[in-house]
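Supplementary Methods, section 5.1.

A reviewer requested that the exact input to the structure prediction be made available. We therefore reproduce it here, unchanged from the version used in the analyses.
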Amino acid sequence: MHRTPRLPCVPVLRIGGNRLSEPGLLHGAVQQVRAAAEASSPVVVVAALRGVEPALERMLRPAPAGSRERGFEAGLDELHARHVTVLEAVAAGRPLRVAREDFARQMRRLRVRLEHAADQGEIDSEGRDEVVAAGGRLAAPLFVAALAAAGLEAEVVDAIEVLQSHGPPGSSDLDLAATAALARARLLRPGAPVAVVPGGLAGDERGGARRLGPRGSARAAAALAAALNRVDPAEARGPAPALEARWNGAGPPRSHAAGR
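The structure derived from this sequence is encoded token-by-token as follows.
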């Protein structure tokens, strides 16, 4: 009896913001990725650190009347310090240095967008999505540094390279067919390092970032699991934990939710 060969399973793990926010919990997440990497190179979707996205939303508010400082200045300093504190607890040497440089680039981009919003007195939905997307984009190099410090080769793969959105800014959904094509082209590479993807966002048709809304990082992880393991994209409409249960014992795909 002829049997269709089973495709290799590509594990897709989601690391929640609570785990990334605490060095002890973050170390546990690293060990989870290490275990998954024994079979094949996994893909990791990371959420923003706990409370970061609401903090970014607050930075978009106008400064109080009579204030000499722009409303976002103190928030930016706190955001940077918080990520560096966690980073220094989990990485050293080159991984620490590389992540610091990535943080600096992300903070410069974020500052430019916030300054533009402050000068204009408002920001449109597309600009708001780009600001809030910084949460996941700061978390990704942090986790890459933690993996590198543990001896695992990893790289940041920006969400807009592998996830495609459709719908209006602020409430976009995933274009599953386009996501499948992007993800397979970028991530199915023999011997590739662990790919760490910022969660909660996807690319739009112009190369910008769009927020995916509630449970965005879980939906991104589910969509990538379906894409990389050749499952019908319609199956990726559920949250990652539901997909894991549905496919339990039946081979690929796998999408593991690692905390919140």
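Residues 236-255 have pLDDT under 50 and may be disordered. These observations are discussed further in the main text.
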